[in-house]
UniProtKB/TrEMBL annotation:
One of its GO terms (biological process) is proteolysis. It comes from the Bacteria. Keywords: ATP-binding, Coiled coil, Hydrolase, Membrane, Metal-binding, Metalloprotease, Nucleotide-binding, Protease, Transmembrane, Transmembrane helix, Zinc. The keyword Transmembrane helix applies. One of its GO terms (molecular function) is metal ion binding. This is ATP-dependent metalloprotease FtsH. The chain holds residues 54 to 327 of 503 of the full protein. The lineage of its organism: Bacteria, Bacillati, Bacillota, Bacilli, Bacillales.
């Protein structure tokens, strides 16, 4: 259907270099991706194929970016879905949607002569939450279909499919999802430390006109606890302040206002969710 097609791309054009920090996560992910790149070897040694990787950690830390970079790195087509898309679906529709996702990934890879496809499922906890036996049947069927698809994947499948799932709440996941042969690689994508924050600020100010009074090192200290997504917002808001004042360059003052604004937004979000 047209809905899922909108989420599929042949090339993501996101490189691992576009992700600031997360060195350990990037290395772990690249290592796991060798399973796709050296598929023939994996088959030859009789190694069980890698079917699923779970990326977990706080919101806005770059999990989606990682999945996109993984697709670029392995020259895979990329198909996306979010667990929240399955909310309020009628019984059976969710399971059909999962089938469609896999079919689409295979079709897109074949049509573009790619050896592999990556299916990214964001907010996996929405469909993969622990089953408590009462109600939520439509989620059960969706999850069961996902597990069925993954169990059916073989080492010699062409194209090879890898499912990458992301969650902020790994603790909520049904253990059935995490069993060997399913999402059995878990990679933490955590909040950036000071150096990582500096890298992320560098990435998001690269094409912006910065005044000479700007010290990214200083800014990385002032943004303790910020996620990558928040740092991206800071850079963007600072540029907006400069534009509003008709300044040719973004100054330190614009940045400190932007930091306040992002912090305030955070507070209003928390108030709203109370
Ligand atoms: P969520 O859990 O909320 O879905 P996420 O972990 O998937 O978030 P992304 O969607 O990958 O986070 O990040 C959102 C945006 O924040 C990115 O598009 C990027 O602009 C910025 N960003 C986040 N982390 C990084 C990073 N490590 N380096 C550079 N930019 C980042």
């Amino acid at each position: 259907d047209g809905k899922s097609r909108a989420h599929a791309v042949v090339k993501t054009n996101v490189k691992f270099e576009d992700i600031g920090g997360q060195e350990r996560a990037k290395n772990e992910l690249k290592e796991a991706l060798d399973f796709l790149i050296y598929q023939d070897k994996i088959e030859q040694y009789g190694i069980r194929p890698l079917k699923g990787i779970l990326l977990f950690g706080p919101p806005g830390t770059g999990k989606t970016l990682m999945a996109k970079a993984a697709a670029d790195y392995t020259d895979s087509v990329f198909v996306v879905a979010s667990g929240s898309e399955f909310v309020e679906m009628y019984v059976g529709v969710g399971a059909q949607r999962i089938r469609d996702l896999f079919d689409e990934a295979k079709m897109l890879a074949k049509r573009n002569k790619k050896n592999s496809a990556i299916i990214f499922i964001d907010e996996i906890d929405v469909i993969g939450g622990k089953r408590d036996g009462n109600g939520l049947k439509e989620y059960d069927q969706t999850l069961n279909q996902l597990l069925t698809e993954m169990d059916g994947m073989k080492a010699n499948d062409h194209p090879q499919i890898l499912v990458i799932a992301a969650t902020n709440r790994k603790d909520l996941l049904d253990p059935a999802l995490l069993r060997p042969g399913r999402f059995d690689r878990h990679i933490i994508v955590d909040l950036p430390d000071k150096n990582a924050r500096k890298k992320i600020l560098e990435i998001h100010t690269k094409s912006k006109p910065l005044a000479t009074d700007i010290d990214l090192n200083q800014l990385s200290m002032e943004t303790y606890g910020f996620s990558g997504a928040q740092l991206e917002s800071v850079a963007n808001e600072a540029a907006i302040y400069a534009l509003r004042e008709n300044k040719l360059e973004i100054t330190a003052k614009h940045f400190s206002n932007a930091i306040d604004k992002v912090l305030m937004g955070e507070q209003t979000d928390r108030e709203a969710s109370k």
